[in-house]
Amino acid sequence: MDEQNRNLILAIVLSTAVLIGWTLMFPPPEAPVLEGPATAADTPVAADTPSAGGATTATTGGAADNVSATGADIGRVEIETPRLGGSISLQGGRIDDLELHGYKTSLDAGSPDVTLFAPVGAQEPYFVLYGWAPGGDLGFDDVPSANTVWTLSDGDMLTPETPITLTWQNTKGLKFSRTISVDADYLFTVTQSVENTGSAIARLAPDNKIVRVGQPLDQQGFFIIHEGAIRQTGEEREEWDWNDFPDLGGDPRWGASADAVQVQENGWVGFTDHYWMSMMIPAADQPFESVLRYSPPSDRYETVVRLNTLAVEPGETQAVTTRLFAGAKEWETIRDYQDNDGIHEFVDSIDWGWFFYLTKPIFFLLHWVNQIIGNMGWSIIALTLIIKAVLFPLAYRSYVSMAKMKELQPEMEKLREKAGDDRQKLQQEMMALYKKEKVNPAGGCLPILLQIPIFFSLYKVIFVTIELRHAPWFGWITDLSAPDPSSIFNLFGILPFAIPELGLFEFLSLGILPILLGISMWLQQKLNPAPADPTQQMIFAWMPWVFMFMLGVFASGLLVYWIANNTITFAQQYLIMRSQGYKPDVFGNIRSSFKRKDKPPEEPTKKAKK
């Protein structure tokens, strides 16, 4: 076996090993089995909460952060908007019940709306707490806590047209108000005010947090998508996965597992999931302390926004406003909040990946095309046509170079025979031949190299963006973000039985799209005769079918792109080869692939030039 064959085999083996290793190392996460819903006792909050003056006050049962699960008994204010539904608990005034209208948990009939926020006592507690950190002579009993019972003083339902106001008064002459409004999409605006009717100055700081108890059960656990916390600090953006929280390091004011940073302007912080997120957003010019904190005993994750301490003089009222995004990661909605509401770089809360310089324009183009066509499947095919048209000049030069290389094959074989084992002499004479005939041997590689980042960027777009979630194409393809649901095991739905569960061997359950992918790759090979070398023949013969199995578990949208790309590439290459005087014998090459021959197949015949 010569060195060329060894290198080819090694490349194929390494590529296959990477694909298999990827599948084994990052399988879909299995949801843990729970005995029952969590209770208040299961989710205690025992953490050190720094006061507004900088001292640390240990919280115990009934202190500021200790949330009980009695909100349903105290009373709730209903939330109803075109995109959201839920309620606000009067206990703590916490937003802890939120569903997303228009997004179902599955495609099954009667499937419920996706739940974003859930109260303590639910299976996955996830809620927002607005409050105040005391300073000076104030203690935690003098400011509203997570268990404070608020009074609904204005409004009876939170809608885009009707805000609500909650009030509470302590025994030292401080009257607290919280006005909450919401728009027609996913943005809450919360104004907290304090009126000092006492005789002493009051020092306190707005202290707002998003809290999750336990990691989400439906997380992807896949490195291609970031899930966890995300923080914007001016021009910098930081990300933490869930497993990073226990290693946050220590902060003397916030606890053993915490990370705090001062933000001067243009900041936001919160949690992001695959398709949903919640972000606390101070005003663009508002300095604040951005904190990530983890409490191991209760497996509690927090993102905190601590604004500057206010000094409220007797007879004075001071207020501060922050915004909360809680909803789906829709590109157009988030972009509008960035452009129209001044939320700095908010569109980058979507994980665009390493190839963001390609991922963003590819998604923008796909989104624009879909607005015209109205079907994501056909839009992906249209996007493929556009990409192939943009790359056509490079593809043309590549295929012309490949055609010329084939024309030089007889002369190159003569050079190999003449040089024998003298590889240096062979390389020199081949380079001289390339220079004489004006052929670039690497010319065919550039379009392939360009396809790699484009492929990964499109995969990122299909995997990450919510616009493809549950997006149908036609027929049996009802979700382009999921693998092809058809299977060869029940003859693609003809036989009346369910597809067996195969676990890590799920790739054996081939659907229609993976099979079409393999056929399209196989037909591309048949534009040229099989290589003369038997080893190369075997490798190229198996390659389409190996990729068919490996890519069969990928999202249907990605397979639609790849099949369309292969089909267009086949047509381009065929026409370009014809324009260069060669007539590819596709059917002859197919017939020869099923026969054993002692001699290699003939090269494509060159037409007589007029």
UniProtKB/TrEMBL annotation:
Membrane-spanning residues: 7-25, 376-396, 445-468, 488-519, 539-564
Gene3D superfamilies linked: 2.70.98.90
Keywords per UniProt: Cell membrane, Chaperone, Membrane, Protein transport, Transmembrane, Transmembrane helix, Transport
Bilayer disposition of the protein: Multi-pass membrane protein
One GO-annotated biological process of the protein: protein insertion into membrane
Domain Membrane insertase YidC/Oxa/ALB C-terminal: 376-578
Compositional bias ranges of the Low complexity kind: 37-64
One MF annotation (Gene Ontology) recorded for this entry: membrane insertase activity
Biased segments, Basic and acidic residues type: 599-610
Location(s), subcellular: Cell inner membrane; Cell membrane
Gene Ontology terms: cellular component: plasma membrane
Region annotation (Disordered) ranges: 35-67, 591-610
Domain Membrane insertase YidC N-terminal positions: 76-365
Family: Belongs to the OXA1/ALB3/YidC family. Type 1 subfamily.
Function in brief: Required for the insertion and/or proper folding and/or complex formation of integral membrane proteins into the membrane. Involved in integration of membrane proteins that insert both dependently and independently of the Sec translocase complex, as well as at least some lipoproteins. Aids folding of multispanning membrane proteins.
Complex and partners: Interacts with the Sec translocase complex via SecD. Specifically interacts with transmembrane segments of nascent integral membrane proteins during membrane integration.
Full protein name: Membrane protein insertase YidC
Native organism: Candidatus Rhodobacter oscarellae
Gene expressing this chain: yidC
